[in-house]
Amino acid sequence: MKALVIDDSRVMRRIVSNILVEVGFETIEAENGRVALDQLESHGDVSLCCIDWNMPVMTGFEFVVETRKHPEWRNVTLMMITTEGEQDQIVRALAAGAHEYVIKPFTPEVIVDKLQFLGLVDVKESV
Amino acid sequence: MTIPATWEPLTAADPVLTIAQDLFSTMIDGEPGHLYPWMGENPPLEDPRYAWVDVSGPVVTRVMLMAGRATGEQLTRALLQMDDSEAVSDADFADAVGEIANVVGGNVKSLVTNPGALTLPVVTHEEPDMSKAFCLLETYFGWKGAPLGVGLWALAS
Prior knowledge:
The complex is a heterodimer of chains A (127) and B (157). Chain A is of the alpha/beta class and 127 residues long.
C-alpha cells in the first residue's frame, strides 16, 4: 500500500513516514496541500494520506475539502495529524471528509492503532 | 462582537510543563522522565536560538521556545534518530526546533477559549523584540543537563 505524508516540516514527514514504512507502507511526501493534490493525480494507487493542518500554499483542511470533490479519490483514507486540538477543529475536519484525527505529539503506537481501526494495518503488526 | 481570548487556564496551573513533558516523552525521548522543571533562577542560554508560533485573534499571543544551539542540535538528533556524531544542518535544525515550538504552541492554543489561527513557526538567532509584549509565563526546563525555556507573551496589537 502507498501512503502520502503531507506536512511542511521535513522532520515530521520523516517521523510519520518511518512509522508507516515499519508497518508495510510505501511512502511519498508533499510539503503542502497543493503539492499533495499533484501527487494524488500522478500516483493513482495512494490508499492513505496523513495530513498536517497548518501549511503554506494550501492547508490540510483545504486539501481534505478539495480531495473530497473528486469521486476517483473517495477510497483514499484521510488521516489528520496536527497540533490543532480544539474540538471544533476536529469536528470541522471530520465533517469535511477526514476519517481519523491524531493530535501531535503522538507515539508510533497511536498511529498504528488508528491504522488498525481503519483496517489498513493488520492487528498483529506493530512498530 | 469581539470576544477576547482567555488565558487564565494557562497561567493558573502551568500546563506548559505538562505539554512539554508529553511532547518530550512521546516524540523525543521515547519515555518519560527526561524533561524536568529547572530549579532556581532563569539560566543563561549559550548561543541561544528562538523558535516561536503566534496565535492570532483579538489578542495575538506568542509561544516561544528558547534553547542554546547545542541543545537544539541534540533535540534535532533525537527527533530524527540521528547518531550523536552526525552533523546537524541548519535546515534540519530550523525544521526540528520550529516543529517543537509548533507542537507546544498548538497544544497551548487548544487550552484557551476563542483562539485564532496558529501561524507557521519562525526560528531565529536574534532574540525578537518583545519590549511591547506582556509576558504571561516564562518557564525553564532541564533536558540532558541543559536548560531550555518556553515563554508565553501577549503582543501589543
